[in-house]
Amino acid sequence: MSKIKCQCGHENPFGTILCEACGRPLTEEAEKSQVVDMRYEGSARRSQTYNKSIVDKVWNFFSSVKVGVSIIIAVLATSAIGTIFPQKLYAPVSSVNATDAEYLAYYEKTYHIFGTLYYKLGFYDMYNSWWFKVLIGMLGTSIIIASIDRVVPLYKSLKKQRTKRHASFMKRQRIFGEGKALDSEATLDKAEAALKEMKYNVKKEDGAILAEKNRFSRWGPYVNHTGLIIFLFGVLLRGIPGFYVDETMWIREGELRNITGAPGYFIKSNDFILETYTKDEANAVYGEALDRNGPIVKNFQTDVTLFKEKEGSLPGSEDLEYVKDYSIVVNKPLKFDGYNVFQMDYRLSELKSMKMQLIEKSSGNSYGEFTIDLDDPKGTYELNDGAKVELLEYYADYDGIKDGEPVSKSPIPNNPAFIFKMSTPDKPEGEKSFVAIQQTLETEENAYKVKFVSADTRDISGFTIRKDKTLYILLLGGIIFMIGVIQGSYWNHRRIWIQKGADQQLLVAAHTNKNWFSLKKELDKLNDAAKLPEYVDRQDKETKEEPEEGAES
Amino acid sequence: MGLANLSATLLEISFIAYLIATAFFGGAVKGAKSEASYKKNRWGSIAIIITIIGFLTHVGYFIARWMAGGHAPVSNMFEFTTAFGMMLVGAFILIYFLYRTPSLGLFALPIAILIIAYASMFPKEVTPLIPALQSHWLTIHVITAALGESILAISAVAGLIYLMKNIDMTKKSKQRFWIEFVMFVIVIVIGFVLSSSAFKLAGYEAAFDYVDKNDKPASIVYNYPPLFGMNESVAKSPDTMKPWVNLPAILNGKVLTTFVWSLFVGSILYLLLRLLFRRSIAAVVQPLVRKANSQLMDEIGYRSVLIGFPVFTLGALIFAMIWAHEAWSRFWGWDPKEVWALITWLFYAAFLHLRLSRGWEGKKSAWLAVIGFIIIMFNLIFVNFILAGLHSYAK
C-alpha cells in the first residue's frame, strides 16, 4: 500500500489518521472533528486498515476491544453459572472413582430437575469443559492480537512525534487555549522553566515547546498483558506430563509407604494429632466463641519421617536412607525435591487390632487371650491347655448376610466380623461361631465362645502430594502483570504543547491519557508562572457555568 | 478481657463520629452559598476532622482486637465487614485530600455506617483460628483484598453521586427507575439492621433439628421468628412460631427467613418514607448532590478504579493463589469465593477496557461502578451464605 505524505513532508504509513510528525488530520473524519480522537495517537493500526484476506478478518476480530470485552463478559457469566451448585470436585460422592452415573444421581437427588439439567449441560464440571477452555483460549488470543495491533503503531508515532505540531492539531485537543502574549519569546522561556520544575521533559525548537512526562505509563497495558499471557502459558504447561503431579494418599499411624506420585520416596507416619482449643488456654477471650460454637479445632498434624531409596539400589528393594523428620501441619506442607506433601484429611480411630478371649459359657472360665491384627489376621491362635482358635473367615467391613453368606463392603476394618473355629480339650472336633460387633451367631448351641476384650485403634492421615513446575512461571506472570498494571494505573502520560502563532499569538494544548484533573492543576500552576493564554476543557460543561468544588486550586 | 472491651468501645466511638461527620458534610453542602466556596467551608473542615478522629478510633478498634485475639481481626463476617468499613473510610479520606469534595463524604460515610451496622448483626465474639486460617497469609491476603475492594467501592459512591446529579428525576425513564431501585436496596439493608437489632434486643431464639443436604442430622438457631424451616426441621424450643413451610435441603430456611423479614421491614420503611416525602427517595436525595461537579465525580470514579484495581488484583487473586497453594495444595480450585473474586476482577477489567477504548464515560461508567460494588457485596454476602464453599468460615 502506498504511504500518505503529509503537507509537512513526513511520510505516514497507510491508514494513518493524524500525521505522526506534525499531527495534521489526514482523514476527512478527523478534519471534521472538533476534538480529535487521541487514542493510539491516530496511528495506522493494522486492524483499522486492512480487511480483505481471511487473516485480516481474524486479526480484526481479535483486535477489537468490543470483542475482547465480550469475551471477558462471557467468561464472567459462565464462571458465575459454575458456582450455582457444587462442582464435581466438591460433590460429596462416596467413592473416589465415582462413575458418571453416581454423579448424575447425586445432582438429581440433591437438586432435582435443576441438578439433572446442570449435569446434562456439563456445568457440573464446566471449568474443565472444552467450551470453557475455548473461551479462555480466545481471551488469550484477543489479548495478544489486540496488544500487538496497538503497541507497535503507538510506539512508532510517539517516537516520531515532532516538537512543533500543526495548529490544526493543537486546535483539536480537548484542552486548548489561544491568546496574545506581550512577549511570546519571554513567555516561552518562563514556561520552559516552570515545566522543568514540574519534572517534564521539555523540548524546544522553532518557537515551540513539547513538554512530556511519564510516557512509560503508556506501555503499562502491554506489560500487564504480557504477564497475563505468561500466566496462561504456565497454565497450559500443566497439561504436559512431568510438569505437574497431583496425587492423594492415606497413611496409618506406624505405617511406612512409598509416596504416591513421588517414586523413590517413602514416608512413615509416626503420629497423627488433633487438638481442639480449650477454655483454660492462655487466650481466655475465646471462651464466648467456644460456648456458642462448641469445640473448635486448633491443629491437625502428622509427625512423619521421610525416607529415600538408597542410590544404586534396585527399585522396590526398600533399602532406605533417612532424610528427615517433619511435622506436617495445615499451611505447612512437607517440602522436598520440588514435591509438597499437604495435610488434607484424617480419619480417627480406625481399628488396628482386637483382643479376644475364649471362654467356657457355663463356668465363665477363660482359656486365655489372643490378639487379631486386622491388617494381617493369622490363621490359628494357640491358647492355654491345648485350646486353640482358628480364624476361618474375616470380614473387614461386615454388611449383613446376603444369599446366606456374610459380606464385607470394603477392605477397611470399619465393622469387623469373624468366623472362628474353637477347639478345646473336651471338644477337639471344634465348634463354629460367627462373631461380629455385639453379635454372635451359632449354627447350634456351643459350649464355648469367643469374647471381645478390647481393641487398639490408630488414626489415618490423608495427604495430597503436589509437584508443580509451572508455579514459577505463574508467579513470574503474576509479577509482570502487577508491574504493568501499576505502571499503567499509577502514572499518567501527559503532554503540553505551547507554540507561537502569527503575530504574538500563543497556542497552548494539552493531552493526558487519564486523570485530566491533575493535568489541569499543573496547567494552572504553569499559567500562574508564565501567564499563558487561558485554556478551555471542552468536555467539562459545568465548570464554565458555575464554579464548583474542585474547580479552583 | 480489657482489650476486647476497649476495642468494642472504640468501634462505638467511630460509629458515632461517622454519624456526626455525615451531618457536618451535609452542612458543608447545604451551607455553602457559592459553590466555589464550599471547598473551604468551615463545616467541611470540621467534618473531615471528625471523620479522621472516627477513623483513628476505628484503627484503634482494629489494633486492640488484634492484640486481644492474637490474630488479625479479619477472620469472620463481623470482623471482615467492620474492617472493610474502616478501609472504605480510609479510602474516602485519601480521595478527599486529593479532590476536596464534601459531597463524596455525604455519601461515602453513610454507606460506611451502614456497612458497620450490618457487620454488627453478626456474632461479635473473638474466635480462635481453625488450622486452615493459621497463616500470616490470612493477614496479608484478607487485608489487601479488603483494601482493594474499599477503594473500588469509592468509585461506586462517586458513580452514585454522578447519577443522582445527572438523571432527570422529573421524567420517567429506565435510569430513574434503577436509581430508585438502588435507593430501595439501601432501605432494605436498613430494614435488615432494624429488624435484626429488634429481635436481638428482645432475645428471640428458636432452635431446630434438621437434616442437611448430605442427609446428616444438624441443628440450627434462628434469631427471627421462623417463616421457612430447614429440611425436615423439628422445633426444639417451645412457644416459638411454627415455620410456614419446611424447605428442601438445598435451600437454607434461616437465610430465607432473615431475607424475607428484612424485605418486609425495609419495604414498610420505604413506603413510610415515600408517604412522608411524597416523592421518590432519589428525588429527595438529589438536592444534596447539586453542588458536585459531574466531571470531577466521573474522574474520581475512574481514578479510584485505577488505584483500587491493582490492589485488588494483588490481594484477592495473587496473594490468594499463593496462600491457596500453601493451605489447600492448589493455587486455584474454582471454589465459589475464588470464582467470584475472579468475576469481580474480570468485571473491573471490562470496565477499564470500555472506558479506555470505547469511551464509556459519564453515566455508563457510573452505572458500571455501581454494578461493580453490587458484585463485591454479592461476593461478601450472598456467596458466604448461599453458595457455601471452602471460604464460609463466616457462618
Strand order of the largest sheet of chain B: 2-1-4
Helix content of chain A: 25-40%
User: Span between N and C termini of chain B?
Assistant: 24 Å
Report the radius of gyration of chain B as a whole number of Å: 22 Å
- Looking at the chains present, what oligomeric state does this protein adopt? heterodimer
The residue ranges of chain B in which pLDDT falls below 50 over 5 or more consecutive positions are none
Give the overall pLDDT of chain A as a whole number. Answer: 84
Low-confidence stretches of chain A: 545-553
Strand order of the largest sheet of chain A: 4-5-22-23-3-24
* SS elements, strand count of chain B: 5
Measured by DSSP, the beta-strand proportion of chain A falls in: 25-35%
Task: Let me know the largest β-sheet of chain A.
Answer: 6 strands, antiparallel
Number of beta strands of chain A: 24
Radius of gyration of chain A: 40 Å
Supply the number of helical segments of chain A: 13
Helix content of chain B: 55-70%
Largest interface chains and counts: A-B, 77 and 76 residues
Largest sheet of chain B: 3 strands, antiparallel
How would you describe what is shown here?
With 553 residues, chain A is α+β, with helices and mostly antiparallel strands. Chain A has four domains: 45-158; 172-208 and 497-545, Alpha-Beta Plaits (2-Layer Sandwich), CATH 3.30.70; 244-348 and 462-468, no CATH class; 351-455, no CATH class. Helix content of chain A is 31%, strand content 33%. In chain A, the strands form six sheets. Chain A has a six-stranded antiparallel sheet. Chain A is elongated and about 135 Å long. Chain B has twelve helices and five strands. Chain B has a domain at 2-169 and 292-338 and 388-394. With 395 residues, chain B is mainly alpha-helical. In chain B, helix 5 packs antiparallel against helix 11 (363-380). In chain B, a hairpin with a 5-residue loop joins strand 1 (206-211) and strand 2. Chain B is globular, with a radius of gyration of 22 Å. In chain B, the strands form two sheets. Chain B has a three-stranded antiparallel sheet with strand order 2-1-4, with no helix packed on it. In chain B, strands 3-5 form a two-stranded parallel sheet. At the A-B interface, helix 4, helix 5, helix 10, strand 9 and strand 12 of A face helix 9 and helix 10 of B.
